[in-house]
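Input C-alpha cells:
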C-alpha cells in the first residue's frame, strides 16, 4: 500500500501485481482528466468525491464506491477533506466485474476487506493464502453490492453546454432555460429524453439530490443546503430528499 501525498503522481499501470491499493486524504484536490488500463474501485470513507466521466457526472458520498472500468476517461474532484481508498485491478480481473460505471454501497464486510487489501504491498502474491481469499471475496462483494442512483447523464447538445460547464450552479427552471437557450420547453424535453433518458424536470431533481448530498457531506447544514437548492423551507427539502433517496438526510448520513 502507498499512503499517497496530494503532490505525488501515481501510475497504477506500471505494476505487475493483479491488484494495487492506495490510501489518501486530500483537501480540495483535482486529479485532472486521465485514464488507466486497470479498472478502479474508488471508495470514499469520508467527505465526497465528484467524478466526471464520459457524458456522466458521478457523486461519491461517504461509504459509497465508484467502479470505473479500464480505459474510461475520468476526473475526480474532492472538496473540503476527502479520505479515500482505491484499488486498481488488472484488465483480466476487471473483465470479471461489471462492464458499466456504477456507484455501489460499501457494507461492513466489504469495508473490512478493502481496508485489508490496501495494506498489501505492490508486489503482493494474490494467488495463494489469505490474500487469495480476500481477493475472491472482494470481487464477489463488488458484483453483488447494491447500486445507488448517484450517476447523472449529461446532455451533449451544444445549446445546453452551460449546464455541464458549471456543475455547482443550480440548473434553472424550465421556463428560464427556454429563454436562455432560445428553444421551447418541448424541444428541451426531447433533447434530454434522447440524450439522458429522462426529462428535464426529472434530470434537474436528480441534480438537486446529488448536490444536496455533496453539500451536506462537506459539512453544510440542512438549512444552508435547502436554501442553496431553492427550497422554500427545510421541511420541503426533507420531504424532497426522502422521496428521492428513500430516507431523511439525517438517516442517510447516519
Amino acid at each position: 500500500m502507498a499512503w499517497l501525498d496530494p503532490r505525488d503522481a501515481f501510475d497504477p499501470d506500471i505494476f505487475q501485481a493483479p491488484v494495487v491499493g492506495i490510501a489518501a486524504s486530500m483537501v480540495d484536490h483535482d486529479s485532472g482528466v486521465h485514464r488507466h488500463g486497470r479498472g478502479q474501485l474508488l471508495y470514499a470513507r469520508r467527505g465526497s468525491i465528484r467524478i466526471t466521466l464520459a457524458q456522466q457526472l458521478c457523486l461519491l458520498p461517504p461509504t459509497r464506491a465508484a467502479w470505473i472500468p479500464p480505459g474510461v476517461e475520468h476526473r475526480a474532484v474532492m472538496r473540503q477533506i476527502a479520505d479515500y481508498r482505491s484499488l486498481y485491478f488488472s484488465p483480466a480481473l476487471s473483465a470479471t466485474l461489471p462492464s458499466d460505471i456504477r456507484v455501489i454501497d460499501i457494507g461492513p464486510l466489504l469495508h473490512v476487506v478493502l481496508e485489508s487489501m490496501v495494506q498489501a504491498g505492490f508486489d503482493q502474491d494474490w494467488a495463494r493464502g489469505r490474500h487469495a481469499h480476500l481477493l475472491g471475496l472482494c470481487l464477489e462483494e463488488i458484483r453483488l453490492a447494491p447500486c445507488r442512483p448517484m450517476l447523472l447523464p449529461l446532455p451533449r447538445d451544444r445549446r445546453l453546454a452551460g449546464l455541464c460547464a458549471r456543475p455547482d450552479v443550480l440548473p434553472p427552471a424550465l421556463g428560464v432555460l427556454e429563454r436562455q437557450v432560445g428553444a421551447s420547453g418541448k424541444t428541451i424535453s426531447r433533447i434530454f429524453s434522447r440524450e439522458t433518458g429522462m426529462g428535464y424536470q426529472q434530470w434537474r431533481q436528480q441534480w438537486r439530490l446529488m448536490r444536496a448530498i455533496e453539500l451536506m457531506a462537506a459539512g453544510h447544514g440542512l438549512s444552508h443546503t435547502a436554501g442553496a437548492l431553492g427550497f422554500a423551507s427545510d421541511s420541503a427539502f426533507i420531504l424532497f430528499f426522502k422521496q428521492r433517496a428513500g430516507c431523511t438526510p439525517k438517516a442517510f448520513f447516519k
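Residues 86 and 250 are 27 Å apart (CA to CA). The mean pLDDT is 88.
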